[in-house]
Amino acid sequence: MSVTLNEKHISSFVSPREVDQMAPLVAAAVRQLEEHTGAGNDFHGWLTLPTDYDREEFERIKKAAAKIRSDSDVLIVIGIGGSYLGARSAIELLRSPFHNTLGDGPEIYFAGCNLSGSYLGEILKLCEGRRVSLNIISKSGTTTEPALAFRVLRKMMEERYGKKEAASRIYCTTDRARGTLKELCDREGYESFVIPDDVGGRYSVLTPVGLLPIAVAGCDIDAILRGARKAEEELREPDLKKNACYRYAAYRNLLLQKGKRIEIFSCYEPRFVQMGEWLKQLFGESEGKDQKGLFPASVAFTTDLHSLGQFIQDGSRCLFETVVDIRKPAADLFVEDDPQNLDGLNFLSGQEMALINRRAMEGTILAHTEGGVPNLVLELPEANEEEYGYMVYFFEKACGVSGYLLGVNPFDQPGVEAYKKNMFALLGKPGYESLRDELLAKLQ
User: Fold this and answer.
1) Which of 62, 364, 395, 434 is the most exposed place for a label (fewest CB within 10 A)?
2) pLDDT at position 350, please?
């Protein structure tokens, strides 16, 4: 159980000497994390979370998940950013992108992650004639997207069930002691779970933020934390030569120095698509500040080889790939022989789809590297709960180290507030009147 770094396809772009010379810088970045001296150190709680999590609350999560699985056909998870990406990515990776149609427990949908009225209206339609529960996830309860969605969905629940029954079907994941949502939760009697004060949203998937919906999907959250604990222990290894997490962070920094300003996460399993979205938030929101950072993108291969594959192969040499190689597929199929061979594919007869997919991956890596695109390959033995927990911790720690190598605070997001200020002004929120006039003039 581990994530390993295959460096075979990076050696022609970054020399071993260059990586070795990064050792003192990586060690300094690690000290900023481990000794809590770096910027944003009040959000380092995820570092020891796999060991220090609240056992009593963890048991309540499992009980709540069992209740939802027994009394609900649909769970609506309301949240934005880290409040939904972690859970959604885990469910699709560990269960299936088709989880909602395969009949394994309640269907799980996500609301409050946009401001589309048509999207929310369709969520309401999905709830018609179904037994529904809600899980609202918000530290404050006032973030626009989830707060609006909760307003609509709470009204639907109370009209359908009455306030008392609705309260037994609404679960809040919020601040321990303060905030609008916490006050509402206490007043209405909703069961509540805590977003730790020292864990930011994009690092929160191993807290109740992610664990409750993941457990509702039928995943083994004990195994997830077991894998994360192993990563917490193993990834303390100080030797850069032996720590794949630190080496990955070093390579990312070196490639950025060489002008590779875009990191493309790729995987050859459709189950990983939403993990790509989670990685984009983790690295984009952590590193993209002070006019610095790698731009994170993601592709789903082989699908995107027929679109973005052209750019990667022949376009600007401004990027590198991080390939997540899931060594053992969740299931497989054999290609049968076709006597007529109309498609000319009988040369594949008797072979496993997994082998064909692997040859596509290997051929693509060779083509891209020969075309001037560095490829880092992170190998994951299989997509089960323990490996997932290990991988999440691996990426979180790599992100923290990378941010400090870059010289930014990897645990804040000041740029997120700019659009909110303009949006509030344009919508007429009290206190933004002068800015509203200024913005409306610019839009003329």
Assistant:
1) 434
2) 87
